[in-house]
């Protein structure tokens, strides 16, 4: 009789041991969750600050290259190593002043929810209501003379006509004539959908005379990450990236310009973080 009950007692002991082990694992996981969350938030903050950030496109000013609702990944790492935007790059930059009109609605969130949103926004996991960022393509860098349009209706940089395959269908290079010499340390930027883009052309009366400072550039948009069907790299067209640097001395402002109606330009929306940036660039990039 004692011999027959021994296996039953052994199975009961194993079940009790398994239940105790399961309870210990559950308690251990509960203790680790706060640490996991903290580490995740720190990683998100570091990535947002130094490496890569996702922006949601709210307007059609960069169509057809980038469409409304696209998520673009922006490389914020290479500028830390002295890399500067080049002609043809698509860049995100801070409003240099007067490009955007703030339109903030009063928050109806309670103090707890508002505080939580502020923390998640700080680390880059929620969009920010206060960010004033825009996205455009670099057409001219310091020392360049950018002019539109020539007898064939083309835009030129330093006297060389530029082929612009990225322009939205039906859009001319510009409906407003202009000629500007870009000061050193600044950029001349334009949207690919020229008819609806409130770009450098429309702000030549602002400080900087339509150009933006290099210090205001957040980073280079290097890939469309969402939606899946539109995932592709954002390369600079050869017609712009192959142009030589201007040899003439830099000027200080526009020589002439045309003024048209100012399109509405909403700010970009900061999105959740994505993957690390692909920092390899420049050599052998195919045209768009």
Write up this protein.
The protein has 288 residues and is α+β, with helices and mostly antiparallel strands. 23% of the residues lie in helices and 21% in strands. Strands 1, 2, 3, 4, 9, 10, 11, 12 and 14 form a nine-stranded antiparallel beta sheet that branches. Strands 7-6-5-8-13 form a five-stranded antiparallel beta sheet, with no helix packed on it. The protein is elongated.
What structural keywords apply?
288 residues, alpha+beta, nine-stranded antiparallel sheet, 14 strands, elongated, disordered C terminus, five-stranded antiparallel sheet
Describe the secondary-structure layout:
Blueprint (H helix, E strand, L loop, with lengths): L1 H50 E5 L14 E5 L14 E5 L16 H12 L10 E8 L4 E4 L6 E3 L2 E2 L16 E4 L4 E5 L21 E2 L3 E10 L5 E2 L4 H4 L12 E4 L11 E2 L18
General form: elongated
Question: Number of DSSP strands?
Answer: 14
The number of helical elements comes to 3
How much of the sequence lies in strands comes to 15-25%
State the end-to-end CA separation.
86 Å
- Which stretches are low in confidence, meaning pLDDT under 50 for 5 or more residues running? 249-254, 272-288
Major beta sheet, specifics? 9 strands, antiparallel
Q: Which bin fits the share of residues in helices?
A: 10-25%
């Amino acid at each position: 009789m004692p011999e027959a009950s021994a296996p039953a007692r052994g199975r009961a002991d194993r079940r009790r041991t398994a239940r105790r082990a399961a309870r210990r694992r559950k308690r251990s996981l509960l203790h680790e969750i706060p640490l996991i969350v903290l580490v995740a938030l720190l990683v998100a903050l570091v990535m947002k600050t130094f490496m890569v950030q996702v922006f949601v496109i709210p307007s059609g000013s960069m169509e057809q290259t980038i469409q409304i609702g696209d998520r673009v990944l922006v490389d914020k790492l290479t500028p830390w190593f002295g890399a500067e935007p080049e002609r043809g790059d698509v860049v995100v930059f801070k409003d240099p002043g007067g490009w955007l009109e703030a339109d903030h609605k009063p928050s109806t969130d309670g103090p707890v929810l508002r505080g939580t949103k502020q923390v998640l926004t700080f680390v880059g996991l929620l969009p920010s209501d206060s960010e004033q960022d825009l996205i455009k393509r670099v057409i001219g860098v310091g020392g360049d003379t950018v002019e539109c349009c020539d007898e064939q209706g083309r835009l030129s940089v330093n006297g060389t006509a530029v082929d612009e395959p990225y322009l939205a269908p039906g859009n001319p290079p510009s409906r407003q004539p202009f000629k500007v010499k870009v000061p050193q340390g600044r950029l001349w930027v334009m949207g690919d959908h020229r008819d609806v883009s409130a770009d450098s052309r429309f702000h030549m009366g602002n400080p900087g005379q339509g150009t933006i400072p290099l210090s205001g550039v957040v980073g280079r948009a290097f890939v469309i990450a969402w939606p899946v069907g539109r995932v592709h790299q954002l390369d600079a067209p050869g017609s712009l990236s192959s142009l030589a640097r201007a040899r003439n001395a830099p000027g200080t402002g526009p020589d002439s310009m045309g003024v048209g109606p100012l399109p509405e330009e909403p700010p970009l929306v900061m999105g959740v973080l994505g993957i690390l940036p692909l920092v390899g660039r420049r050599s052998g990039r195919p045209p768009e």
